[in-house]
Design goal:
Structural class: alpha/beta
Pfam families: Glyoxalase (PF00903)
Shape: globular
Protein name: Drug:proton antiporter
CATH class of the largest domain: Alpha Beta
Number of helices: 2
InterPro entries: Glyas_Bleomycin-R_OHBP_Dase, Glyas_Fos-R_dOase_dom, Glyoxalase/dOase/EhpR, VOC_core
Mean pLDDT: 94
Largest sheet: 4 strands, mixed
Number of strands: 8
Radius of gyration: 15 Å
Amino acid sequence: MTPAMTILYVENAAVSADFYEKLFGIKPTDRAETFSLFHLPTGLVLGLWSRAGVEPEAQVTGGGCELAIRAPGAADVDATHARWSALGIPVLQPPVEADFGRTFTVSDPDGHRIRVFNPPA
């Protein structure tokens, strides 16, 4: 078996789809009232599913994990931070040097954390 997709439970699939379209600069490949699907250039498939329709029932939405995005270089981390900040995306942690490299963290409308990082050489 092969992991095929990451699904985030959200309160409002339309609001979340608009957010991720702005964040990634691509349109969802599938968009319905309760579910949207993004095929990212990296191969990651990201689903956004309205929590109210999930069976079995989802107990929580955001905050329990991070969507980690590897940037090609440390300068790309800073450039992505600047671009997303200009779009008004909520920044939880500005760019810093961590043990695992240059990184920053933002939040989606449901509190899902999105970390951009570049590991040290």
